[in-house]
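Researcher: We are triaging several targets before committing to wet-lab work. For this one, the compound of interest is zinc ion. I'm pasting the protein sequence and the ligand SMILES. What I need is the predicted three-dimensional arrangement of the protein with the ligand bound, expressed as structure tokens, so it can go straight into our comparison scripts without reformatting.
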Amino acid sequence: MPQFDMKIVPADAVAASSILEHTAGTPVKTGEGNETYRCGACKTKLFVNVSHHDAHGLVVKCGKCHKINADPHH
Ligand SMILES: [Zn+2]
């Protein structure tokens, strides 16, 4: 199953209201798809077994390293 590293972006490049909060140890989202997305900085798994559609356009703040991750647009 494909695994992707998300893209780190500056916090001021995205609207605060669109940022999902991740809690260390628990993926933000799990599903029935086949793609896993990891923090681009610390490799924590943020989205597990989601479909490409589910991850498209998401912005999430890593609960471990607190960096802002965006959809890598692969
Ligand atoms: Zn991280």
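Researcher: Any quick observations?
Model: Residues 52-55 form the longest helix (4 residues).
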